[in-house]
């Protein structure tokens, strides 16, 4: 039931399928005409009866999508090459997708953002026996084992060892926290070297290791590595229902820029996702 990742046009990348019940334009190739890609995406969504289309696009393409019935849900300034903004624009093709929106969680998020300045940052170094290292392809079995244990469902096939190996080949960088030589938590950076940005994603901590601030420790390490590589814009999609993860990014001075409503199938159901970003 996992969704497919495919190319359209000259190299634009989409993900689509019944799990997330959507089309996601992950990357618009600079040589592709926005109106042509938009038509292909609309046709694909209608053919498969998906209920949402979500597109991450540079600001120059936004007017074409907005004129085509898309609504802005989030925006990241200076996203591509430290200069061009990115827009997350969506079209809801079925009104059911907008039912049962997490109103209470959105209200809680609003209150959290009001008190963001009072959120105390932590360095995530409370445990002297824990070390963090960059993971290699040879660690793929440990990576998939943790993801299987932590996530009931996930928008990408991270339980599949073959998929994890392919992400290594495509430039995704994994970092893991270890205790006693055993991997207990991990996260990754999906790096766009051309655009000089990276998504901080796939945070997972074994249930019996939670409460040790490992997400902050991993995020600290990821940021330092990205800075050394010349990656200047970092962002994440954090579950609206996961207050702890959103709070973690706010602690680390990430800015909230919008919520993607009913966007991602994770933890057993389709949930809304908060967009947070940081320039380093």
What does the model show?
Keywords: Transferase. Residues 130-266 form the N-acetyltransferase domain. This is Putative beta-lysine N-acetyltransferase. Pfam families: Acetyltransf_1. It comes from Draconibacterium halophilum. The relative contact order is 0.14. The radius of gyration is 18 Å and the shape is globular. The mean pLDDT is 93. The longest helix has 15 residues, at 34-48. By secondary structure, it is of the alpha+beta class. 28% of the residues lie in helices and 38% in strands. The protein has helices at 34-48, 62-67, 103-114, 140-150, 161-169, 214-228, 243-251, and strands at 4-8, 12-17, 22-27, 52-58, 71-80, 84-92, 130-134, 173-179, 182-192, 197-205, 233-239, 255-266, 269-279. The strands form two sheets. A seven-stranded mixed β-sheet has the order 7-8-9-10-11-13-12. The protein has a six-stranded mixed β-sheet with strand order 1-2-3-4-6-5. It folds into two domains: 4-98, 3-Layer(aba) Sandwich (Aminopeptidase); 117-279, Gcn5-related N-acetyltransferase (GNAT) (Aminopeptidase, 3-Layer(aba) Sandwich), CATH 3.40.630.30.
């Amino acid at each position: 039931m996992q969704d497919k990742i495919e190319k359209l046009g000259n190299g634009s990348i989409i993900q689509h399928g019944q799990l997330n019940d959507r089309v996601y334009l992950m990357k618009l190739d600079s040589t592709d005409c926005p109106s042509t890609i938009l038509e292909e995406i609309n046709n694909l969504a209608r053919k498969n009866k998906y209920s949402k289309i979500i597109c991450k696009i540079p600001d120059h393409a936004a007017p074409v999508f907005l004129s085509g019935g898309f609504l802005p849900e989030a925006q990241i300034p200076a996203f591509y090459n430290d200069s061009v903004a990115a827009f997350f624009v969506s079209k809801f093709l079925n009104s059911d997708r907008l039912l049962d929106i997490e109103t209470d969680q959105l209200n809680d998020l609003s209150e959290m953002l009001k008190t963001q300045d009072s959120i105390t940052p932590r360095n995530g170094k409370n445990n002297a026996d824990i070390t963090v290292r960059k993971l290699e392809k040879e660690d793929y079995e440990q990576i998939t084992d943790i993801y299987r244990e932590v996530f009931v469902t996930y928008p990408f096939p991270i339980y599949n060892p073959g998929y994890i190996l392919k992400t290594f080949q495509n430039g995704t960088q994994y970092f893991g926290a270890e205790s006693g030589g055993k991997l207990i938590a991990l996260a990754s950076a999906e790096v766009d070297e051309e655009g000089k940005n990276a998504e901080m994603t796939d945070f997972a901590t074994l249930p019996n290791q939670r409460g040790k601030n490992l997400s902050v420790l991993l995020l600290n390490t990821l940021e330092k590595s990205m800075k050394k590589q010349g990656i200047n814009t970092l962002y994440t999609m954090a579950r609206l229902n996961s207050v702890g993860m959103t709070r973690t990014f706010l602690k680390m001075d990430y800015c909230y820029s919008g919520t993607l409503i009913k966007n991602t199938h994770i933890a057993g159901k389709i949930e809304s996702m908060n967009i947070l970003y940081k320039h380093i």
